[in-house]
Amino acid sequence: MSHTNIPLAGVIGCPVGHSLSPRLHGHWLKRYGIAGHYVPLEVQPDDLVEVLGAMSRMGFVGANVTIPHKEAALRLADQVSDRATLIGAANTLIFRPDHTIYADNTDGYGFMQNLRQNCPDWNPKAGPAVVIGAGGASRAIIVALLDAGVPEIRLTNRTRLRADQLKSEFGGKISVYDWVHLDRMLEGAATLVNTTSQGMVGNPPLKINLSDLPTSALVTDIVYTPLETPLLAQAREHGCRTVDGLGMLLHQAVPGFYRWFGTQPTVDEELRQVVLG
Ligand code: ATR
């Protein structure tokens, strides 16, 4: 197959129709006048190996990978970043000219950049971080928080085993709390993050009493439908600063766009509006 001179990238998922990435990257391509394309690709798990090889030969410069391919993409890559190895999943692939594949995971980076952009004086080292949930997003966020130097992570999950598993992998700074003791995790915390789907449109809100949370704490959510989740509304009423989850999605896309298309894109209000449609 032949190369075109127009760089191609895309998002691989199953299903992929709901992905906001095409709108996001499409907007940046237009904004920076780059003659590239970013396409959604619905790929069945059994076809992933073949599709990645074909994309590389067809001149794709890279791809985002989403559910259910994040772990498989990591295994299939020729080289993997340290953070993707730690997280155990890839969300960003680079197809190199020699047809090898480099895999990275930018979810934790997106999480940190969102907080840094929207709350510049937030200091992750100022106190314990409370992390609710122990799924894939939680892993990426824990890796990023530990890398940023948090003194302690207080972790809870409905299924305790998954939280214990993360503690055994990531070590001594993590303390695991029972799901029923959510409210006991909050004293002295500098950061609180919900990584579960609770509070998303169609799901019940997270049940939590914030009275022991210092008002100096920063509260954030990975859910961005709605932008202000019940947790964020409750935290704002309590007097805490809050940052919504949309910025994490936008910022995680930055490193891929930069490596594929050579321009460092900006995350701003205009982009938020475009992505929200
Ligand atoms: P993601 O990759 O988005 O993190 P995931 O790996 O499926 O997705 O994790 C979803 C998280 O939301 C988990 O922490 C999950 O808790 P369990 O490990 O107990 O499943 C949490 N979650 C989902 N539905 C929940 C509910 N109804 N109540 C509490 N937690 C829930």
Automatic annotation (TrEMBL):
Domain Quinate/shikimate 5-dehydrogenase/glutamyl-tRNA reductase: 129-197
Residues in Shikimate dehydrogenase substrate binding N-terminal domain copies: 11-93
Record bears the keyword Amino-acid biosynthesis: yes
Active site (UniProt): 70
Sequence positions that bind shikimate: 19-21, 66, 91, 107, 224, 252
Catalyzed reactions: shikimate + NADP(+) = 3-dehydroshikimate + NADPH + H(+)
HAMAP family (UniProt xref): Shikimate_DH_AroE (MF_00222)
NCBIfam families the UniProt entry points to: aroE, PRK00258.1-4
Subunit relationships: Homodimer.
Protein name: Shikimate dehydrogenase (NADP(+))
Organism: Donghicola tyrosinivorans
Taxonomic lineage: Bacteria, Pseudomonadati, Pseudomonadota, Alphaproteobacteria, Rhodobacterales
